[in-house]
Design goal:
9 helices; about 15% strand; globular
Length: about 290
């Protein structure tokens, strides 16, 4: 009877089409498909939960592949996070590079004013660009006019004093002498750097302030950073850097009747260079030394 029924179903499905096979119900076929269907259902569920695994499988094997896909998906996510971290690391490295570049442009550190090179002063532990100036007594209580000689002799005194105190750079005396054919204007004018004492004290921020008698602080210290003792400075020069008519006969005479222009190391107006146009050359004064 079962054989007849089965044959009838087959003949009927041949007429109705392939979809009819889904309703075939005999024990052997049903037992064979039950386990596979259950496994496929589980696999399909795993696959559907795992968006990185694509569709669910057919049967238990497909379900296992679904779990593997889920793991791969998680791995991919972790790899993505790793990539993001690497990107952050790269960003940090870039910032570090930027910091390093900024450090490269900073001035060198210093501990003492003599530890900076030419045209620089030590301010708060950093060498800063500046042109330095100082005054010297030359002797304990200054020197008479003839001792100075012409500009070249005075320049030698300035360079000797700078070198003996560990100061680098080139130095000239703020002095006008016809025998040397020069005035400070010809070599001292500089519009870009401020003038400072060797200890970093500002004297004049610009050339204009220097030559119009608008000093912030007087030129009152020597190359060791100590105050000078002299009350006058031989210059033969007005504060605008031009020569006067009085220079102790080119600083070759020390007679009381011969005159030379002198400045004061305590003044910040034009008196810093020419407080007294006619100072007897027998007086004892010091010198100003300028880096250039």
């Amino acid at each position: 009877m079962d054989r007849i029924l089965g044959l009838g179903l087959v003949l009927g499905c041949a007429v109705l089409g392939p979809g009819c096979l889904l309703v075939m119900d005999y024990d052997g076929y049903g037992d064979q498909t039950d386990a596979s269907a259950g496994a496929a259902g589980t696999g399909g569920q795993d696959a559907s939960n795992d968006t990185s695994a694509g569709g669910g499988g057919m049967g238990g094997a497909s379900g296992k592949a679904g779990n593997g896909g889920q793991d791969a998906g998680n791995g991919g996510q972790d790899a993505g996070s790793g990539g993001q971290d690497a990107g952050s690391g790269g960003q940090d490295a870039g910032s570090g590079g930027q910091d390093a570049g900024g450090d490269a442009t900073e001035e060198a550190p210093c501990t003492h004013f003599a530890s900076c090179g030419a045209k620089s002063v030590c301010i708060q532990g950093q060498c800063q660009p500046a042109l330095r100036v100082f005054a010297i007594d030359v002797a304990a209580d200054g020197v008479i006019g003839a001792y100075i000689g012409d500009n070249q002799s005075a320049d030698t005194l300035c360079n000797q004093e700078a070198k003996s105190n560990g100061l680098q750079g080139q130095w000239r005396a703020w002095l006008s002498s016809a025998s040397d054919g020069g005035t400070p204007y010809e070599w001292a004018k500089n519009e870009t750097l401020p003038r400072m004492l060797v200890d970093g004290t500002l004297v004049a921020a610009t050339w204009g302030e220097l030559v119009t008698g608008q000093l912030v602080n007087p030129i009152s210290k020597n190359p060791a950073g100590a105050f000078v003792a002299v009350a006058c400075i031989w210059t033969g020069t007005l504060c605008d850097s031009s020569a006067t008519a009085f220079n102790c006969d080119n600083f070759s005479k020390s007679d009381a009747g011969v005159m030379g222009t002198s400045g004061s190391p305590t003044l910040t107006d034009c008196g810093w260079s020419s407080v007294t146009l006619q100072t007897p050359c027998s007086a004892k004064c010091g010198l100003y030394c300028f880096e250039y």
